[in-house]
Write a structure and sequence with these properties.
The complex is a heterodimer of chains A (330) and B (512). By secondary structure, chain A is mainly alpha-helical. Chain A is built from 13 helices and no strands. Chain A has two domains: 257 residues, MetI-like (MetI-like fold), CATH 1.10.3720; 45 residues, no CATH class. In chain A, helix 5 packs parallel to helix 8 and helix 11 runs parallel beside helix 12. The longest helix of chain A has 38 residues. The model of chain A has no long low-confidence stretch (mean pLDDT 79). With 512 residues, chain B is an alpha/beta fold. In chain B, helix 14 crosses helix 15 and helix 15 crosses helix 16. Classes of the chains: A mainly alpha (330), B alpha/beta (512). Chains A and B meet through helix 10 and helix 11 of A and helix 13 and helix 14 of B.
Chain lengths: 330, 512
Amino acid sequence: MNLWLLAWQRFLRDPVGVASATVVLAFVAVALASAFGWVAGDWASEVAVSYAPPRFAKVQRAEERAQEESKASAQSDFGIVDPIGKELAEARASLSESLKDEARAGAVLFGADKWGRDVLKKAVKGTETSLVVGFAAAALATLLGTLFGAFAGYYGRWVDDFFNWLYSVFTSIPYLLLVLAVAAVLGQKGIVTVVLILGLTGWTGIFRLVRAEYLKHRVREYVLAADSVGASDLRRMFAHILPNVSHVVLVQLSLHVVLFIKSEVILSFLGFGVGVDTVSWGSMLAEAPSELILGMWWQIAAATIAMALAVTAFSLFTDAVRDALDPRLQ
Amino acid sequence: MSVLSVRDLHVAFKETRAVRGVSFDVPEHGTVALVGESGSGKSVTALSILGLLPSNAKVSGQVRFDGKDLLQASRRELRALRGAGISMVFQEPMTSLNPVFTIGFQIGEALREHLALGRRQVRARVLELLGEVGLADPAAKLERYPFQLSGGEQQRAMIAMAVACEPKLLIADEPTSALDVTVQKQILDLIAALQARRRMAVLFITHDLALVSQIAERVVVMRQGEIREQGPVKEVFGTPRDQYTRMLLEARPRIDAIRTRRREAAPVMLEARGLAKSFDGVAAVKGASFSLARGRTLGLVGESGSGKTTLGLMVTRLHAPSAGELRFHGEDAGAMPRLAFKRRVQIVFQNPYASLNPRFSVGATLTEPMRLHGIGADEGERRALATALLAKVGLPADALFKYPHEFSGGQRQRIAIARALTLGPELLICDEAVSALDVSIQAQLLNLLRELQDETAMSYLFISHDLAVVKSMADEVMVMKDGEVVEMASAEEIYAEPKHPYTRTLLASIPR
């Protein structure tokens, strides 16, 4: 029986793996639906009042808050008459009345942001951004890392020296500094830029592992045997060795998806990520500090829960994949 | 009076029953050999005596040592016993020694653990032990790390460690299988000498029947977890009652066997002159010259590090020679087109677990060379050819769709041979092609190789460390030592009257 099939059977026997895979698939489904515009296509439209609270949450209504405030001020005025107190109270009352109506009319299930956009839809759109960036950047980094690693490890000598030099250059610069530098060079903001930034800087870890595997495998007897029947260098590298190191590549791919989802959040939080015309978990988090002061927690909660769930599920999934593919079990 | 008695021992791992009802005794001061092929349960039996089995093993039965049942003993009792009462020597000295501690420290550990000696006393005792196991310059060896010693020296250090606390029983699990034949003889002599001096009992585990008759008084033959036959060595070997024992005895290649050979003159196919190879200035092969005729077999014998594998790889053009000349049918082999040369010269490697790509089905493994060389018009025809080759090496047609891990070692080696045959080579290099296999399987494969040679008039370059196997295959034999060919003669000659002193040592070391 095929080794892939055996690995698949092992994976199916792992309940944590199956559960995490289900969650991961759900996220992928949400991201796809969002990408095709089936859901959250109208995330940017104003559907509620600014900072409308989630419908289920017991957020103090503005009117009650005003009452409490007036009570507090009444206690502390030591009998001195506020010259504009009366007018203020009236204005407040009429304002809160209108606010209350509006808030009720436009309430959205998970609340709204500053511009009255649905937080749930933003989180869904953010899922699309994060997964697209995560998968595309991980694919690019894995492709580069695997190719470089294969050539360096297989050919050795000056090819190895060259790629090692490149590796050292990339790893000698602090990661965030490198990312920011590439972001500055690429200039234009957007998903493609973020993918390029992460992909072009993130291949080093994969390169190191794949190179080590190729160093080990190129002297194995099955590769010598392939040589002795006349298989060319490229055939030996990619038809013979690659399937035997692919478990390493796959696990790295999966790990880097998680890593890059997190990196994208950090980049967008710092303002180097996606532009204002799109949304990501990172840009949602970036809006959060000023909201939190005012007690509006729903945006940060949505972004954090979505991200924590995605990252945890993906990490568990990666572990399960690694266990299933472990060649020592074969 | 027996020092160890095993009664109705059963060991199971999940569904596999590795040992099924094994009973035997080791008499005081006696040597018992536990013999079997891979998977016979002999090592599992040994490990269960010392309670060294992994925790998922289910053990039942009785193992009495000095009147105490070891299977019922607590971990503390077992710990006190290991090293002091019973100790063990393993197969691979390199991996059973800890690479980050000196030899002296590791040998001293058992002494500190069991005898509560002071530092000076431990050092003096370790020096004494190293001298006793025959290590030259023990004071210097004390400070060495395992990698600074040769395989034989490492095994001597292991033995010193095992006998440090004067155990009553020494369990030796394939202690010489990883060593060269000349070193093997030294280690066996050492164990015998230690046994006589210290009056300890030895349980010797091995797959090599020839060793048994040399060292043991009693033999226990195991197969698939069961004892097939046991008794005094002379009886069992002289008049084996069990069919399996008989088969084992017949299968082992014998140094005194004579092969009937073709005598007619044949044209020379391969000629090497001063073939040499060095890696980073270290000479692996220092100028080898030989010739090989069509349909003949040239045996190449040598110990590890003699350069025989390098020479084989040069002949296949997997290594480019640093100097010298290789002529194939009078043509310069180095100048021949790569694919054309590979089509005529093929190789079978030693380790059938490593030489087949685990991700390729057998069908893919066999059709790949044909596709590369344009043999067969389409995939269907190549598959048909592959099926025919499988039949030739004695494998069923449905093997085509299976993967290497579904086959045993012997079957895998048949697949490797079939792969070499896909191109219809004129010369086949067998680099230790049967060394990793059990004797019964070894005999079958040697027969297969002989039949193929009779059928196709292929020439073989047969590389092996095992002189008996080479004798049973080769017309001419070449002996290598330290990268040099020290002797070359016809098979009969080299075994009857070896000229070079090294050849004589080699022949004298063979257990018979």
